[in-house]
Amino acid sequence: MKIERVDLIAVRLPLVRPFRTSRMAGTDRHTFLLRVTTDTAEGWGEFGGDPEPLYSAEFAAGAHRVLRDHLVPRVVAQDTVTTARTAVAMAPVKGNPMAKALLETAILDAECRTHSMPLATYLGAVRDRVPAGVSVGITDTIAGLLDVVSGYLAQGYARIKLKIEPGWDVEPVRAVRREFGDELALQVDANTAYSLVDAQHLRGLDEFGLVQIEQPLGEDDLRGHAELAKLLRTPICLDESIRSAADAAVAIGLGACRVVNIKPSRVGGYLEARRIHDVCTAQGIPVWCGGMLETGVGRAQNLALAGLPGFVLPNDLSASSRYYAEDITEPFLLDNGCLSVPDGPGSGVTVLPETLSRYTVSTETLYE
Ligand code: OSB
Ligand code: MG
């Protein structure tokens, strides 16, 4: 392929309810899309980060800048653009995996569309439906939390993940267990809120039969997670700590995790995400697909990945209505606790131009 044009479209969509984690609180998703036009097809991607560097070091304005000044110029300069060559062209630029993921993904979407191939087929998916979990933010009160969880369970979600932080951990978990029973697939996500001195306190979670505790310690603290793993019965899942297949191999080797959350945006794109899947699966480590409250654009692509054989746990992939009153693609609907893997060419979804324009904050052509 040859790239003819690259557009960046900043969007802001209100969330149906505020989302709070140990690290951030938000009432909308403020991100940007990238549209890559090639000589054979058009492809889309969604930036996984936020305006503020609170989940990862990357943030929207920085990603915009590194795309415009460093990544796009290197990629468009190639005579032949393919998905696999994109990482090679971007390799001299250090870091910035979310910005790199975005450009590679838009190219991947265009490449799949060029060959009329679903992204799920390209990646090696073996399922056409995947179990949908839901990630539940920190609420002001336990009663409020029980209300929210009960609403999601009524819709049929396959598992519940509670965001936790010091002061909001054992008690909300106890309340949800008491209210909804031992059969509920329940897990927690700390987004790096604890340190090893909290090990004794975190052992208080062991009695609730959680599927996993996600990222209790700092993202660079693999050794700490390995120590904590010896003290907890609850399996540790890593999110922020896993940035590559090499990270996954080291974390598994150290005993720092028994489960891995794969977020394509965090790890530099779908090709690296698939390599992480392969490393984990080869070592018997179950994986699931994480999310960043994506619009339909990113969600469609994550669903394709979640169709791979090693994605054996419910994903942070929920119906469009869990995030937005109106999505910018055709909405994803929950069907018996599952979402369908799109089967059309590329991501399989269409960005609805009129809807997109209503949520667009600004647009900029990065290359023409
Ligand atoms: O840690 O998994 C996380 C959202 C934003 C930032 C970090 C995380 C999350 C979620 C949302 O948990 C999952 C989703 O997109 O449904
Ligand atoms: Mg997480």
Structural class by secondary-structure content: alpha/beta
Listed once per kind, the bound small molecules are: 2-succinylbenzoate, magnesium ion
The CATH architecture designation of the largest domain is Alpha-Beta Barrel
Assembly status: single chain
The first-to-last residue Cα distance is 15 Å
| Largest sheet, strands/sense/barrel | 7 strands, parallel
Number of domain modules: 2
Q: What best-fitting shape do the alpha-carbon axes yield? A: globular
Calculate the mean pLDDT score and round it: 98
What is the count of helical runs? 13
Query: CATH superfamily assignment of the largest domain?
Result: Enolase-like C-terminal domain
Q: Would you list the SSEs in sequence order as H and E?
A: EEEHHHHEEHEHEHEHEHEHEHHEHE
Cofactor: a divalent metal cation
Domain Mandelate racemase/muconate lactonizing enzyme C-terminal: 142-235
Pfam families: MR_MLE_C, MR_MLE_N
Keywords: Lyase, Magnesium, Metal-binding
Q: What can you tell me about this protein's structure?
A:
The chain is of the alpha/beta class. It has 2 domains: 3-116 and 353-367, Enolase-like, domain 1; 121-340, TIM Barrel (Alpha-Beta Barrel), CATH 3.20.20. Helix content is 36%, strand content 21%. A 7-stranded parallel beta sheet has the order 5-6-7-8-9-10-11. Strand 1 (3-20) and strand 2 (25-38) form a beta hairpin. The longest helix has 18 residues, at 97-114. The radius of gyration is 20 Å and the shape is globular. The chain starts with a strand and ends with a strand. The model has no long low-confidence stretch (mean pLDDT 98). 2-succinylbenzoate binds at residues 55, 135, 189, 191, 239, 290-293, 316, 318. Residues 142-235 form the Mandelate racemase/muconate lactonizing enzyme C-terminal domain. One of its GO terms (molecular function) is metal ion binding. It is an enzyme of class 4 (lyase).
